[in-house]
Design brief:
The protein is an alpha+beta fold. The chain folds into two domains: 17-126, Rieske Iron-sulfur Protein (3-layer Sandwich); 139-354, Naphthalene 1,2-dioxygenase Alpha Subunit, Chain A, domain 1 (Alpha-Beta Complex). Helix content is 19%, strand content 30%. It contains seven helices and 20 strands. The strands form four sheets. Strands 11, 12, 13, 14, 15, 16, 17 and 18 form an eight-stranded antiparallel beta sheet that branches. The chain has a six-stranded antiparallel beta sheet with strand order 1-10-9-4-3-2. Helix 6 packs antiparallel against helix 7. The longest helix has 20 residues, at 278-297.
């Protein structure tokens, strides 16, 4: 679909919120220079910092001699450059040049400023605020019956789109996850009904008996009887697994597009069964991640390619739908924010497509 050069120019993703770090990472402050760190998003280096007024995101290159602001200091609501001490406020405007006190500050002495906010223990950034698109929701976060346990963020040498596609793919279970999730005796999966609504793709998977392992082979009462999926465009997914005994397990993942062929993944494992040790669940999910890594990182190219470059079949229905919508969003963004909004909020229910301009 897109090559490396197109990735850098990919405009539709600029309108979305992407996670860039955890609040825990941001607040480490190991050198006493304040809560700040360098992050990479859509092939751009940014500094995110927690100031007296909250989290900010700026371009990580001083307008003076191009040094990295993230090596400097957080002072009040501002960031000071480590090279010559230029001070930038939360809007990215230089307000102090120590070597030239009392002299006019050049109007061009500023760096790019981007929207930043906190949600779900993460720092989120969007590069273009022309559309009012919300942060990908995590329904489990405010559910009093669910315990939310975050993973440590991890890197994959692939695109955010490839990572998401892997997360919602069912037919790789018997091969990549033969021991942990699937079975070679069950390689055929029902093709789900796919609904597109409010910037999301939703489908449900009801496994055939014996086709879906749980990680707890001794307790048949926790057998998964239904899994509800929602893809939150462009790179988020929320999964709810319903067990026979009424337990619910939620998986929430957002892949952040750092650059072509590299994404950083933020993930949570959520569950209704509070009293199980967290580490048991984290270890099981991490095992699945490690099983996927060599396969997904072997895909070439790392970005989703032109539709003619790979063969799809009916069991790839979810992937086909996702790729089509991603492509449509990319083309719509070339026409401007309004066209992208119309594309993003369009509905396609049971194969019937209707326009919908209202946001989620």
């Amino acid at each position: 679909m897109i090559d490396k050069a197109q990735f850098i120019a990919e405009s539709s993703w600029r309108y979305f919120w992407h996670p860039v770090c955890t609040l825990k990472e941001l607040r480490k402050n190991p050198d006493g220079r304040g809560k700040r760190m360098r992050v990479r998003l859509l092939a751009q280096n940014l500094i995110v910092a927690e100031t007296n007024s909250g989290v900010i995101a700026l371009g990580d290159k001083c307008a003076h001699r191009s040094s990295s602001l993230s090596l400097g200091w957080v002072e009040g609501d501002c960031v000071r450059c480590p090279y010559h001490g230029w001070v930038y406020n939360s809007e990215g405007v230089c307000i102090e040049i120590p070597a030239a006190p009392g002299m006019p500050i050049p109007p061009a002495a500023k760096v790019a400023r981007y929207d930043a906010k906190e949600a779900y223990g993460l720092v989120w950034v969007r590069l273009d605020s022309a559309l009012d698109i919300p942060v990908p929701p995590c329904p489990d976060w405010d559910d009093p019956e669910m315990k939310c346990v975050p993973f440590e963020p991890y890197l994959w040498k692939t695109s955010a789109a490839r990572r998401l596609e892997n997360f919602v793919d069912l037919s790789h279970f018997p091969f990549v996850h033969e021991v942990s999730l699937g079975s070679r005796e069950h390689t055929t999966f029902p093709v789900p009904t796919v609904n597109q609504t409010k910037g999301q793709i939703r489908f449900t998977y009801i496994p055939l008996k014996g086709a879906r392992k749980t990680g707890d082979t001794e307790n048949k009462d926790v057998e998964v009887v239904r899994t509800d999926y929602r893809i939150i465009m462009p790179f988020g997914v929320h999964v709810v697994l319903h067990a026979r005994n009424g337990r619910r397990t939620g998986l929430w993942m957002v892949a952040s597009p750092m650059e072509s062929g590299m994404c950083r993944i933020f993930q949570m494992g959520n569950r209704t069964h509070f009293f199980d040790p967290d580490q048991i669940h984290l270890d099981f999910q991490w095992r699945i991640v490690l099983e996927d890594v060599p396969i997904i990182e072997s895909q070439e190219p790392p970005e989703i390619p032109d539709p003619q470059s790979e063969i799809s079949t009916p069991p790839d229905k979810v992937s086909i739908h996702y790729r089509r919508w991603l492509h449509q969003m990319s083309r719509a963004a070339e026409k401007g924010p309004d066209a992208l909004a119309n594309c993003l909020w369009a509905e396609r229910l049971e194969g019937k497509e209707t326009p919908a301009a209202a946001s989620a």
